[in-house]
Amino acid sequence: MSKLPLLVIAAGGTGGHMFPAQALAEVMLARGWRVKLSTDARGARYTGGFPAAVEIEQIASATFARGGLLAKALVPLRIAAGTISAAFAMLRDRPDAVIGFGGYPSIPALGAAVLLRLPRMIHEQNGVLGRVNEIFATRVNRVACGTWPTTLPESVEGVHVGNPVRAAVLERAGAGYIAPGDYPMELLVMGGSQGARILSDVVPPAIAGLPMDILRNIRVSHQARDEDATRVSEYYAENGINADVQAFFHDVPRRMSEAQLVISRSGASSIADLTVIGRPSILIPFAAAAGDHQVANAHGLVEAEAAILVRENGATPEALTGLIEMILLDGSAALKMANSALALGKPEAAETLADMIIDLTTQEPSR
Predict the structure, then answer these.
(1) H/E segment holding residue 223
(2) Per-residue pLDDT reduced to its tens digit, 72-87
(3) Are 275 and 346 in contact (CB under 8 A)?
(4) What phi and psi values does residue 281 have, to the nearest 5 degrees?
(5) Which helix or strand (DSSP H or E) is residue 18 part of?
(6) Is the CB of residue 123 less than 8 Å from the CB of residue 353?
(7) How many Cβ atoms from other residues are within 10 Å of residue 318's Cβ?
(8) Could you give the 3-state DSSP secondary structure of residue 53?
(9) In the chain, which end has fewer C-beta atoms inside a 10 angstrom radius, N or C?
(10) pTM for this model (two decimals)
């Protein structure tokens, strides 16, 4: 077996969990560690951007959020089976540390680490602990927080490290911002890794409602769900708006760095990208997010006047038209928003998290 130290990263199957996991994997490989990613089949769909050196281990997991009564009844059994499988894998190839990024697929690896008393920690991306991280917060050695403040159990102390961003985002860190003016401008519309129907419903007519002297300069990159993409693309075309509509953008960092304005959900990864690259935004938090965590995520940007928050129930085309127009007509205010966002960025988050992991393995005994 290789003598290089081994980190097991456990993460669930959404971009919000997988992107920071990927960022940490990139750093740990550069520091001479081996890295394994423990996830389920859904999470494996997001591994295309991970370095080839990362070993992907698919384990059995499940969630109470989907399926019928029988499927929900089988969840504990599937998780238990996954945990036992993960424990045997760790006995064969003992990790020096295990870190969980949340999501039900992270339970087996974290559970096995608890059973085997391995050095372990969690990273919470949002301002409110997710269900899985809430379970493990008192069972790990350290808790790292991506958003500050993060609501934690009374007995738990968190360390604010920020949310790790991928190398592709770091390459655009602090990219020069071209303030809005009477020349071609880019708008980026993002609904998170799952897309967002409300953005597909209200943003196209909001953009179409802009005065023609602004609209003629606009080019839109709009992320829409597969089932919404055709109608969104047709709407833009019918209204003479230059738009690229896709279900998933593989070059978000480039598009964000070229944007004068970003209209987005306020998932943790989106907030991290906005602050590392430094762009003004209109944020429409997902109303059904657990613990209203997307509002908590947006809090820092809104307080710094780097973003405008619009609740879903207030996200009408007319309201958004007014906000977009206000930002694009005041270049100096937009530049101030971009700089305020940049001031909140933590491009060093992945390196800080890596330092914590190494320190955990060398100084702190497991419990």
Answers:
(1) strand 218-223
(2) 566 688 888 889 999 9
(3) yes
(4) -150, 155
(5) helix 15-30
(6) yes
(7) 10
(8) coil
(9) N
(10) 0.89
